[in-house]
Every structure is written in structure tokens, then in C-alpha cells.
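Exercise 7. Given the encoded structure of a 168-residue chain, write a plausible sequence.
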């Protein structure tokens, strides 16, 4: 008979998933900053890199609250999303659509994170882990804010360079 798994186990497994994901994102953001053509894009990716460092530390605090070692668990979803981003960097290098592509990859990352942190926050709440709720919510709010900034950048880049329209 299978051992009984609880919401506590699911919470810990999902925490490991996002911990792994954040570490991959931390490595990917400087590459995206180097690839970005616009100054706002570069600055935005670097700023989020710094935030990501803080988010990793918050996750370590949540592991500590659980009395568990901070350990990642391979997250194939984030590996796939980041691999697509690298493909765009290669295939659109030097083109007018590069930044639009980078922003779209970054938004896919943010949406994954928002999904994970939203779930973790709600489970922490159900498990009565008040401190974890506020740590997870702090990161969730940063991810939401980043997603909004990316939407603004996307409109800018689509309007100037990425567009194929030529002035007549
Ligand atoms: Fe993050
Ligand atoms: Fe993020």
C-alpha cells in the first residue's frame, strides 16, 4: 500500500520545485539582460535578478520554518520555458523582434512563478503557517509587479522596433 501523503508533503515538494526554478532564473536573467537591445529591457532584467536573489533567501526562510534543509527538485517546466527563451535569443539575434521575444519569454517565466507562489501561499494559509504566508506573498507581489512592468515594456518594444510597419 502506498504511504499516505499529505498537504504538508505537497507543500514541501512544491517549495523544492520553485527553489530549483528560482536558481535557474537567477542564472538566466543576466543572459537575458546581455541579450536585450533596449536599455530599459537590460535594466529591468538586472533589477529582477537582484529581486530573485532576495526571493531565494525568502524560500530558504520558509524551509527553515519547516525545519527542512533548503533543497531544490528538478523542475522540468522552468527548464522548458528557459530553453525556449534561449532559442529565441539565438534565432532572433540582431533582429528588430528580439526584445519582443525576450519579453514574451520573461512573461512566461513570471506566469509560472505567479502560479506557484499563489498556490504555495494558499497552502501555507491552509496549513496555518502565518510567517510563510507573508514571505510567499512578498515574493508573489514582486512577481506580479514584474509581469506588469514587462507588459509595459512589451507595448513599447512592439510600437517602436519590433513592428514590421514602415513609414510611408
Ligand atoms: Fe522569482
Ligand atoms: Fe520572477
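Solution.
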Amino acid at each position: 500500500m502506498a504511504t499516505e501523503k499529505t498537504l504538508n508533503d505537497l507543500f514541501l515538494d512544491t517549495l523544492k520545485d520553485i527553489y530549483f526554478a528560482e536558481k535557474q532564473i537567477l542564472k538566466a536573467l543576466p543572459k537575458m539582460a546581455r541579450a536585450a537591445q533596449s536599455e530599459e529591457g537590460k535594466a529591468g532584467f538586472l533589477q529582477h535578478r537582484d529581486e530573485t536573489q532576495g526571493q531565494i533567501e525568502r524560500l530558504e526562510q520558509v524551509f527553515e520554518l519547516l525545519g527542512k534543509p533548503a533543497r531544490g527538485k528538478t523542475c522540468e517546466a522552468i527548464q522548458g520555458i528557459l530553453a525556449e527563451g534561449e532559442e529565441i535569443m539565438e534565432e532572433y539575434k540582431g533582429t528588430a523582434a528580439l526584445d519582443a521575444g525576450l519579453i514574451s519569454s520573461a512573461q512566461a517565466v513570471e506566469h509560472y512563478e505567479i502560479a506557484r507562489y499563489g498556490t504555495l501561499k494558499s497552502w501555507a494559509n491552509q496549513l496555518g503557517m502565518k510567517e510563510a504566508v507573508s514571505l510567499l506573498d512578498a515574493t508573489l507581489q514582486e512577481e506580479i509587479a514584474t509581469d506588469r512592468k514587462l507588459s509595459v515594456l512589451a507595448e513599447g518594444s512592439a510600437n517602436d522596433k519590433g513592428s514590421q510597419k514602415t513609414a510611408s
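Remark. The chain is about 80% helix and 0% strand. Students should compare their own answers with the one above.
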